[in-house]
């Protein structure tokens, strides 16, 4: 379909943004488009895994050491600052190169908030790929209003109040983060919304059936085309996520899972950014141990504040749980969630993890940390009703134990599992011929081909 046209993609260099952008590149490639990736040298992509794409690296000069000293918001601000000029130079050069297929458009991540300015100057149509859900974006778009009406900054005395402008959210679920510089966060959010609003269209790794209300509201508020074409990772059922993984995935997970009973294991992972204190870490560890369920736990280096890796784990912990626990630094998550031994996913509710869990029909234990994770967890517990929240009153081992047992062995867990299987079916239909995502992708491809 897209033969003879090139699409340039510009992923944001964090794991939860890289995975869906590379998946989108694969999707468009199967539709006949040639693909060029522009990527930063910070968290650089491994081009050898994608011989079918062309890669151009831009120099941002952000080192691991520099990045490790910053909070996420300051890091994002720095990357934005350092990337604008090299990105513009790189794109201008690509546009003036006549030896390749003509470039139809750019697809960028709106976390880069300078891109629209560049593409306006270069007269190139630009789409954005939003790697989170629609409702959290609507909440971002409402930030000026929420600040005006006093919902933001959040005050402890209002946490339980509903936000009627954004059903079904309560104040405590608004997508904020404890940033060193709150203004930098508000600026980032406004930049993300602006990149979306001014683009030729927004591509979502989401699904019409999951976010019907939010999409309808967005259609009213934004006069640009929307393309909910997710879940991206399901376009290629056999594909793994190892090719876009920044950390090495520990394959011992799979041989360990092979030795467990069907649906018996709690898979625990809080994604690539969230971090916990050593006190929280111990409550999780003892809660898992007391639950007596087997667990596969991803403890990324840096997950525990102030520790390199497993130092706070009590000596002999894994021996004491009698072989019921397996700890790794990073897992092949898609393969883990698809494994028959996995019965629940204790997650931070990053959007990718949430979608990946739904697609495999795995009930969730929700422990959101910040921004869209809080919105996604609300969907899981109150809208789709396919999971339970843990740590409502602070993380405590007794609560952890009870929540795990509820989801794994009690009636409530059975009901959740049944709803989750229905949801999984519904979602998996959307990629089939005539399904909502299938149709949205056809629209996107035709839209790109008719740009001039
Ligand atoms: N992931 C993985 N191995 C792990 C943990 C996570 O491959 O041990 C992948 C996961 O499949 C997902 C991504 O990393 O695609 C994390 O994205 P998400 O949006 O869930 O969270 P973030 O890391 O952005 O907070």
Automatic annotation (TrEMBL):
The protein's matches in Pfam families, at most eight in alphabetical order, are given as: UDPGT
Q: Which SUPFAM superfamilies match?
A: UDP-Glycosyltransferase/glycogen phosphorylase (SSF53756)
The record's listing under InterPro entries reads: UDP_glucos_trans
Q: Which GO terms describe its molecular function?
A: quercetin 3-O-glucosyltransferase activity; quercetin 7-O-glucosyltransferase activity
Task: Tell me the keywords, alphabetical order.
Answer: Transferase
Similarity comment: family membership: Belongs to the UDP-glycosyltransferase family.
The protein, known as: UDP-glycosyltransferase
């Amino acid at each position: 379909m897209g033969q003879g046209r090139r699409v340039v993609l510009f992923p944001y260099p964090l794991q939860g943004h890289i995975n869906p952008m590379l998946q989108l590149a694969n999707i468009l490639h199967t539709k006949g488009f040639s693909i060029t990736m522009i990527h930063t040298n910070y968290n650089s992509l491994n081009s050898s895994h994608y011989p079918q794409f062309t890669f151009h690296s831009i120099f941002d000069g952000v080192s691991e050491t520099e990045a490790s000293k910053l909070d996420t918001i300051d890091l994002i601000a720095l990357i934005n600052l350092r990337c604008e000029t090299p990105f513009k130079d790189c794109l201008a050069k690509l546009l003036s190169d006549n030896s390749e297929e003509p470039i139809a458009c750019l697809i960028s991540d709106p976390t880069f908030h300078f891109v629209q300015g560049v593409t306006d100057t270069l007269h190139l149509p630009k789409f954005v790929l939003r790697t989170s859900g629609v409702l959290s974006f609507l909440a971002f778009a409402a930030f000026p209003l929420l600040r005006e009406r006093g919902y933001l900054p959040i005050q402890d005395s209002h946490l339980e109040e509903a936000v009627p402008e954004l059903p079904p959210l309560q104040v405590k679920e608004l997508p904020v983060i404890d940033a060193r510089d709150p203004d930098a966060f508000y600026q980032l959010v406004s930049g993300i919304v602006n990149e979306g609003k001014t683009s030729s269209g927004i591509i979502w790794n989401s699904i019409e059936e999951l976010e019907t209300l939010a999409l309808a509201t967005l259609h009213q508020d934004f006069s640009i085309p929307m393309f909910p074409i997710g879940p991206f990772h399901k376009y290629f059922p056999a594909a793994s996520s190892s090719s876009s993984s920044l950390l090495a995935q520990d394959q011992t997970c799979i041989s360990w899972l092979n030795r467990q009973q069907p649906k018996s294991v709690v898979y625990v992972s809080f994604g690539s950014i969230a971090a916990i204190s050593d006190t929280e870490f111990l409550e999780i560890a003892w809660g898992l141990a007391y639950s007596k369920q087997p667990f596969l736990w991803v403890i990324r280096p840096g997950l525990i504040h102030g520790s390199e890796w497993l130092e706070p784990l009590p000596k002999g912990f894994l021996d004491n749980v009698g072989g019921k626990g397996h700890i790794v630094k990073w897992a092949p998550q898609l393969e883990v969630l698809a494994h028959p031994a996995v019965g629940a996913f204790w997650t931070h509710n990053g959007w990718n993890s949430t979608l990946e869990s739904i697609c495999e029909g795995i009930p969730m234990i929700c422990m959101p940390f910040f921004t869209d994770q809080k919105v996604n967890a609300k969907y899981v517990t109150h809208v789709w009703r396919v999971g339970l929240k843990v740590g409502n009153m602070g993380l405590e081992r007794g609560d952890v134990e009870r929540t795990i047992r509820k989801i794994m062995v009690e009636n409530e867990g059975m009901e959740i599992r049944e709803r989750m299987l229905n949801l999984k079916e519904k979602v998996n239909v959307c990629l089939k011929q005539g399904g909502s995502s299938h149709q949205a992708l056809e629209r996107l491809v035709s839209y790109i081909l008719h740009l001039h």
